[in-house]
Amino acid sequence: MGKKILRINMTDLKATYEDVPKEWGRWAGRGLTSTIVFDEVDPTCHPLGPNNKLVFAPGWVTGTPAAPSSGRTSFGGKSPLTGGIKESNAGGMSGQKLAKLGLHAVILEGTPKDKKWYYLVITNDGVSFENADELMGEGMYKVDEILGEKYPKTAIIGIGQAGEMKLSNAGISVNDPENKPGRYAGRGGLGAVMGARGVKAIVVDDEGGPGVEIANEDLFKKGRKALTSAIREHALTKKDGGLNAYGTAVLVNILNEAGGLPTRNFSSGHFEGAAKISGEAMSEAIEKRGAGKMGHGCHPGCIIQCSNIIPDEDGNELVSPVEYETTWSLGANCGIDDLDYVAHATYECNDIGLDTIEAGNTVAMTMEGGLLEFGDAEGAIKLFDEIRKGTPLGRILGQGAEATAKAFGVHRVPTVKGQSMPAYEPRAVKGIGVTYTTSPMGADHTAGYTIAPEIAGVGGKADPLSIEGKGELSLAFQATTAFIDCTGYCLFIAFPILDIAEGFGGMVESVAGVAGLEITGDDVVPLGKEILKKERLFNEAAGFTAADDRPPEFMREEKLPPHDEVWTIPDEMLDEVYGWVHAD
Amino acid sequence: MQETDKGTKTITFEVLLYGPIAAYGGGKHIANVNMTMSQGTPLGAVYAELGIPLKAKGYVFVNSVLCDAPGLNASLEYQVQADDHIGIFSDNHMWPYQYRDGVKMSDELRDVLRKTGAIHHSYESTARDE
C-alpha cells in the first residue's frame, strides 16, 4: 500500500483516504504543505474563514528507522498573522506517528455545521470525531494530560485557549516524549486556523500502521550513516557540544557581546542582564536546584538533544523548553533579567498556546506604549492571564505585536509582513535582515540557514564579507532551508552538513533512498527554489507587493547602540532576491 | 593607567569567560575577571596569563567587535587598551553564520576569514579537509 492523503472534512464530519497525486508525491514536509496550500487554498480567502485549510505533513525521512533527529512535522495554511502563506514546523511526537500510519499529508478543511468543537483520533483504522466539551477552555498541559490518559503513547496535536479564540498569535502544540506541550508550530497563527476548523486536538495513534516504505534501503542506510557520523563529530551537535550543553540559549551571551541582542524593543543591541537569562545561567540553575536537565530530546531518535527542562525556584520541573528566542523575547526584549520569570512566562505560552517570539514582542509593545515599564516582570506575567481569560485587553494582546502596537499608539514596531522579528538585530547582523524582509513567511530566523554555498556551489561567488553579496546569499540560504524543511530532519543538521561534506551527501542520499528520488546535492537549491516560488506566488496573489519586503521604518532612522548602526541594505537588493520568480 | 615602581605603565581591563573555559577565571559557566597588565599587552598574552589553551577559545570579542573564531587565531596580536571589555567563549559555543553575517569584526579576522571561508561554523573541520 502506498502513502495516502487523509482529507478530513469538518463540515460533513467525514474522512477520506486519497491516492497521492503525482506532483504531491514529489514533496514532503514544507514542500508538500506549501504545494497543497498553493493548489487548494484561495490566496484571497479569509484565514479564519471556511476556505482556508490546515495541512500537515511529516518529512521525507520522518518515521524511518534510526534516521537521526528527523521528527519534524510541517503545518501549513494561510496565516492570520501575515495574511500570506505559512509553514511552521515542530518536533515532538506527531511526525513519526503520522508517517508510520502511511500518511503523506493530512488536510483539515471545512467547519462543523453544528458549531460544536471536536477532537479527532487518527488510527490505522480511520478517523473518529469525538466531542471535545471536556477539553474546552483548558490549556495544553491539561489537554495533554486528559488525552494522554485516554490514549496512552500517542501523539497529541492541540491548541490552547488562544486557538479557541482564533487569535492571530495562536500556535499548534505537539506533545513531547514526556507528554508535555512545548513543541510548537508557533509562528503565524496556525493554531487559529485549526480552531477555525472546530478542532481542539488531534490524537495520532500509529499502532498497527504500515510504517514508512523505503525505496532504496541500501542508499538510505549509507546516507543515514554518513549523516549520523557528521552530527556526532561536529563541535556544535555532538554530545556535550554547544547545543547539547547549553541549548539554543548558548547564543544569548554571544549576541550580547556582539551588540546584536535586541533589547527593550530593539532600542539597543546590548542587554546588561543578558548573562542571567542565558544558557549558561540555565545550566547553573539546574545544577544548583538539583532538578531539570540540559540535553533533553524533543522526540525519539534525536541525537542532538538541544532541549532543556527548567526547574522552578523550589526545585520542581517547570517547563520545557526555554530556547534562545524565548528567553530573549520574554527577557531581554522586555528588559527583564529574571530567569524564573522567563520560565514561568514560557509555561504560560505553552499552556495558552502562544508563539513565544510574538508574545515577547507583544509584551514589549505594551511597555513601549506605556502600559508597563520595561523590566516589570510582575506586570508582564499578568498579561498572560488577560489572554487566557479572553478579556478585551487579552484579545488585543493575542493578536500579536502589530495589533497591540496599534492599540497603544506605538510606531516602533519590529515586524515584517505582520510577524515579529526574532532575536537577531538586523542593524547589527546585517545579513539576517535580507532574509527577514524577503522571506515569504515574514520575519523568520529559520528561513535562511547557511548550508549550501560552498558545497552545492550556489552563492559561492558572492563574498560573504561584503554587503554586495547579501541578496544572493540569502536566496541560497532560503532555498536550501526550504529543502531541509521537506526532509523531516531538524534544521540543526545544517551545522554539520555545512562543515562536513560527507554529512551533506549523506543527508541527500538518505532522502533519495527513502523517497526514491533521483537527486544529488546539486538538486537541493533548485528544489528549494521551486518551493519558494510557489510561496512567493501565493503571497503575490494574496496582495503582497515589494512594499511588504521592507524593514520597519524606525530601523532606517534610529541608530542602534553600541555600534550606532542603522539599516543600510538598499531596497534594490531586496527586490533582486526574488526577481527570478517571474524571470524563470 | 598607572605606573609601576619599575616605570612600566599598567592598564586594567575586564575579561568575561563563557562556557567551560570559565574555569580559567574561577567560574564554572561564566567568570568575570578584572585584570591588570602592562600597557601594550597583546591579547595572546592575556590568554597565556589566564592559562587558556589557544585551542580552547572560540569566539572572542573586544568592545563588541568580533576578533576571533573557533579554530582561528586572529586576535593574538591585538594590543589591549585600558578599560577594554573582552568576551571569550569556549570552542563549543555555536554561532551559525546566518546569525553573524554582517556583524562588526576586526580587520585581522576579516583577512583570516577571507582565506579560510567565512561561512563555516567550525574551522576544525575545514582544517581537516585541507
Describe the structure.
The complex is a heterodimer of chains A (about 575) and B (about 130). With about 575 residues, chain A is of the alpha+beta class. Chain A folds into 3 domains: about 5-205, Aldehyde Ferredoxin Oxidoreductase,  A, domain 1, CATH 3.60.9; about 245-415, Aldehyde Ferredoxin Oxidoreductase Protein, subunit A, domain 2; about 430-584, Aldehyde Ferredoxin Oxidoreductase Protein, subunit A, domain 3, CATH 1.10.599. In chain A, about 40% of the residues lie in helices and about 15% in strands. In chain A, α2 (about 30-40) runs parallel beside α21 (about 525-540) and α7 packs antiparallel against α20 (about 500-515). Chain A is globular. The relative contact order of chain A is 0.13. Chain B has about 130 residues and is α+β, with helices and mostly antiparallel strands. Chain B has a single domain (about 1-130), classed as Beta-grasp domain (Ubiquitin-like (UB roll)), CATH 3.10.20.30. Helices cover about 20% and strands about 30% of the residues of chain B. Chain B contains 3 helices and 6 strands, in the order βββαβββαα. In chain B, strands 1, 2, 3, 4, 5 and 6 form a 6-stranded mixed β-sheet that branches. Chain B is globular.
